[in-house]
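Mods, move this if it's the wrong board.
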Amino acid sequence: MKSIQEIENLKLSQKWGMVLGAFFLASAGIYSTARLGGNLFSSLFTFYIPLGLSSMLLGINVTFILTIIVIVISIINLLIASQPFGLFMIFISGIILNYYYWYRWIQEKELEEFRRQKASEDLNLNMNDTQMVHDKVKIAYQANLIKIQRYTALNELARSLAMTYKTQDVVVLLIETISKTFMVPGGVYTLLLFDSSVVKALHAVRYSVDTEMEARLNRERLNPEEIYNSWVVSQAKTLFIGDASSDFRFQNYLSENKVRSLVAAPLMAGSEILGLIRMESCFPSAFRQDDARLLSNFSDLATVALEHVALYRQTIELAITDGLTGLYVQRYYKERARDEVFRALEHKLPLCLMMIDVDNFKSYNDRYGHLVGDRVLKVVAQVLKETVRTVDLVARYGGEEFSVLLLKTPWIGAQTVAERIRQKVSEQIILAAQQSTNVTVSIGVAELNPSFKDVETFIDSADQALYQAKADGKNCVRKSKSGPTDA
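Not the wrong board. Structure tokens:
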């Protein structure tokens, strides 16, 4: 049997067919009763069925018309059959009662349908509101996820920079992290470092363009006097440009590279600007204010990292250089000399070592004082640095004694350098007690040969030559006897 919902979903012609079929059956029942001589009135009650179906399927108006028709037919049948009027009223009352209850049932049905539709609409509205809330939550979640990813990258960068001790490594690490963090369309990322005179010192750029444009971009972007860079340097604060074509600060400036949006943050160490980090795109509105704030965080981190590198370099220099003369200290010098000795022996390269001592330094120091004595040591150190090559190693070996390692230099070359040092030192005028004084040096030179087993033997050989120079009257150059015969 079909459910009521399925019956209600029938077509109108099917509904009429069901109602008219019921009426036909009721009429057939009355006709059969009349032919058999039965109670014609009692069979009229069968019309309740088609009237009820009509109320359910066709509505009140159609049912009302059908009821009138049934009543008229019933009156005619009752008059013919001479039935009592009281029984007829009972039939009419039954019809009215039937009509009343089916009317109420239809009203309740319509009310229930209205409630169902309203509930459905409320549910749809709630679903729409829920979807809107879900979309907002999703957008907020994605935004927060991006922030988490960015600040996670910032945190990981901080840990990586803490273990970085070279400026170039800091630059590369910063640029790679920034480019991967922001990833804007057409993005160009630049780190420009300055020295004390605010000129270009070091840079790194990441972008995907052809090499010709790369060279042109480097020239413009890495120029401290370029308008955007100059603005950051002069204002010492972050520059944010959503659309350069409508920014009143740069309306008269036409960028050759068609920069539309830009963020640049200075690297500030106190009141000193170390450089700047710059992001740009050829598309407008590629960056937001949040990007500018995050880039400022990156620039603060970069400043700390660069200061950390500078402090590390300074610490290393203090550990390996003499505070008075700026030359290498004995410990570091011997470590480097040991490496060079092994390399020279392995590759059969010439190598000479000089031991230099200031003549009569103790008496000079006692006569003019320690401050003048320190000035003498500085003068000798300066002569050594100016005379030898940058690849050579120069150290203050102890007190007034110095040592020089001449790389890839045979005895003839070392002798020439030693004589030049001796002569230059003797020519230096040193003011002491309002009078001009000068000092001389004695120099011992040893040339490396396979008989030297270690660096200490090499140094001792040069030291023995120095003692010989002292014994021969000072202010002269002598070669170690363990080396080849003098020319």
